[in-house]
Amino acid sequence: xxxxxxxxxxxxxxxxxxxxxxxxxxxxxxxxxxxxxxxxxxxxxxxxxxxxxxxxxxxxxxxxxxxxxxxxxxxxxxxxxxxxxxxxxxxxxxxxxxxxxxxxxxxxxxxxxxxxxxxxxxxxxxxxxxxxxxxxxxxxxxxxxxxxxxxxxxxxxxxxxxxxxxxxxxxxxxxxxxxxxxxxxxxxxxxxxxxxxxxxxxxxxxxxxxxxxxxxxxxxxxxxxxxxx
Amino acid sequence: xxxxxxxxxxxxxxxxxxxxxxxxxxxxxxxxxxxxxxxxxxxxxxxxxxxxxxxxxxxxxxxxxxxxxxxxxxxxxxxxxxxxxxxxxxxxxxxxxxxxxxxxxxxxxxxxxxxxxxxxxxxxxxxxxxxxxxxxxxxxxxxxxxxxxxxxxxxxxxxxxxxxxxxxxxxxxxxxxxxxxxxxxxxxxxxxxxxxxxxxxxxxxxxxxxxxxxxxxxxxxxxxxxxxx
Lengths: 229, 229
Fold this sequence. Notes:
Shape of chain A: globular
Oligomer: homodimer
Number of helices of chain A: 12
Helix content of chain A: over 70%
Order of helices and strands of chain A: HHHHHHHHHHHH
């Protein structure tokens, strides 16, 4: 077959697609640069034109996934009708809705990410997601601070800390996925919802809001993610 | 040399010592079970009598390190003179003092743990440390809750969340270590101290205490850790 000459950006994006598929199929550790080159049908020189290492692919992949997520909630971030608190809660509501919409893909992804051998993958993706989300959240907090709604000493640092709170629910998420379809499913879903509620209270307090102001979960949310096809 | 017959617990502890040394010398990923066996001078059967995998060694190592740390602050945890808030602050003060005492070892450890290829090592050790510390912290919080000093919805979950806050300073710690001995050292140390102060305020708020009640840092602490021999 004749080699099709592609635009460099299209080629880069295709490389990322191939790498992402391989990381999820075989795990990050077991995938080699040669595997990626082979699947993408590109030369070694072509690969190294875009990326210097497997690590760099992983970083770029994380940032790309996070940017796509921000893109999908852009309307909420830019809606002039919303005040800072309304914007933050709308942002949380939309994030939950995206999780229900993407549920089957998310379950498969988490199933892979939470395996001990993929711990690097999980933490790299999480770090990339945090890097993209911190300025988005910090902007909302700073605006709320200026309007006297939030009360927090440092919007950017506190945005980082609030986003980091998610890591503390990782175990509860892993248990809910593991229990799905077993008699323990309902109890594991309840435990995760309670954990998300407490995460919300921690976020409220860090931002100087009364307990229960930010809505991190509503009843049935975990069930909806676990059973959606 | 004749084979010395050792007590199984002494043998297990020796295996852990060898594994720990190898993980820090060559990295967790690059160390094989065979390397550990060879260094410890034990048979393959002897190894598998104690551990089923390299993963399990890592877990046990993390728990052992955490238990040693708790052992060193036992007097503070059991001092009947201290009220819950005094106990928590004494616990934080002693933790800082241990960090200054162990500074050169800690710097070498973090230098290894924060390398991207040792990310699994870092997160496993952190998880093991959290598992050991959560009940210790939860007991202090529950006591403070009973006495009306703390105000938090769930002592165990909030203990987990408060301990998890430490992960959000990981980048600032890495930068301070990297900058040590360079013209950027003072600025990086200040940035880390400010981050620790904010982490303290987040912990105060989660536990229902006024800002600045829990002391996570005092001026000069980072400098003391960075320059101690």
